[in-house]
User: Fold these one by one.
Assistant:
Number 1:
Amino acid sequence: MEEAANDSYDGKILYNELVLIALIEQEYIKAELSSKNDDSKYIKFLQTLLSSNKRVKLQEACCRQIIKFFEKRDEEHNIAHKDCKDE
């Protein structure tokens, strides 16, 4: 997983698609690749999977997680921005 989150990934990882989808949807891989407030390796991993394969169900799982990540980030930004306006 770490290799796929790095720029040196060559796309040669064998995996069971359904197992990988389950690991992504249950956020197991996110927990393994992310540190406290840094999800950059996890997002890079999802981007790499998304661009390196043609498996539609896996691409859908990656897209859902990326959308979920940005929705959460935007929500946190809006809450912080609202708090600044209230002061």
Number 2:
Amino acid sequence: MKNILLPLLTLVQKMIKLKGHKQMGFLKMKTNTELLMNALGWEGGTVHQVAKVTGLKVLTILDLDKEKILDTYQLEMYNRGYRWACEGGKENNVPKDSKGYPLFWLGVMDAQKQK
């Protein structure tokens, strides 16, 4: 077993040096809940707490990355969320009209992935 693990560990270490650990998505994948908690400025919490602040249902948060943009209004909501997160949005300045809009929060989540 040790003979198999050592070459694998060496390969992963080389990949980290070549690409950097942030680009290696399989080394540190964050859940939708974790990404939204980070965007809200939290260090921890539950999906239920995130749901309360975002106005989304728990199942919507868990499947947020499967949402599709179908029209320009939805694209605008997505872009607003992305900009809000990039400009340092936190729980205390969540736009009131964003609550319950999955595409706003998809934009927020995608912005967090880029950080």
Number 3:
Amino acid sequence: MNAKHYEWNNHEDTYEEALRRRLISLEKENDILRSDLRELTKVFYKLLEGKNVTKFSDEFVQKVQNFYKEGKKQKKASNDKVFTIEDVVEKFGILPNQVKRILYIRKNGK
């Protein structure tokens, strides 16, 4: 018998194999990045533990929450543009993230 007829066609050079290898390497890289993000998040919150974040008085928080609730009701009734957090930012001169914290976190009693 001729030896050439029994040679094994090497699949290592196929596109599918190259794609499989690339996928495996990207999965490993993704796992490393997720692990890094998890560790960075832990460190971030550890650093924040001792820091003073901006604190607002209960009266101010109530004023912002009431303004937002009334604005939402008023805009729905008059079919005006959508009332957003940006409207609260403009009215009270605070940052969007501070408004979000006041509206969503403080209302849950945290």
Number 4:
Amino acid sequence: MPPRRPEFNAVFVEALDETLTDAFDVEACTQFHNIMLTKYGVTQEELPYRLDTICSLLETAFNVREVQDMEKSIGRRLSAKLGLRFKEDKYYFSLRRHIEYTKEALGKSN
């Protein structure tokens, strides 16, 4: 029997947290979660379902290039943690599209 893959939502939050912590620090990651909860009412468990809100918050705090780099980092980390190949379109990367691809790939591998 193949090893069981980690639970997607928890791995997504780990990838997000690691990206924020590496780009900034632990305090910035904590502030991000506090803003998501107090301003948008989004708990950590709901983060994978609120990609538009995540991206919107990042875009208000950072420039487009920084946000694109963070989204790619989240995607790379998520793929690595789930044992999947990171699929990147060299012309356009969308975290939402990557999440859809990842979920599709997970469904095919189960």
